[in-house]
Amino acid sequence: xxxxxxxxxxxxxxxxxxxxxxxxxxxxxxxxxxxxxxxxxxxxxxxxxxxxxxxxxxxxxxxxxxxxxxxxxxxxxxxxxxxxxxxxxxxxxxxxxxxxxxxxxxxxxxxxxxxxxxxxxxxxx
Length: 125
Ligand SMILES: [Cu+2]
Known about the structure:
There is one protein chain. By secondary structure, this protein is α/β, with parallel strands linked by helices. The chain has one helix at residues 2-30; strands at residues 32-39, 42-44, 47-50, 55-62, 68-77, 80-88, 93-99, 104-109, 119-124. It folds into two domains: 1-30; 31-124, Sandwich (Immunoglobulin-like). Copper (II) ion is lined by residues 41, 68, 110, 112, 115, 118.
């Protein structure tokens, strides 16, 4: 009787561990999401920190009243050096998924004319 109970408990524990293992591996493959808001004329937040070696989805949401983009040049990623290019019309969003492979600091900017105040910093650590 006791043995059976212990066995059932063991199965339950094994099942819970299995489920936990599956869901944690799923969340690590989908990675973290970082959202940056583009307004007239700034990025919010202006400083973003992401982990090195982990998949990250970076999203630009345009809450301004004109078109904005979010650019980061020459990011070291799993696919080599990559330019991050996000473009969003008013009330729209754009996103990109990448894995940064080297710790460092990159400049974030919007290259629309007159948007020189739209700068920020991406920190990979
Ligand atoms: Cu802009």
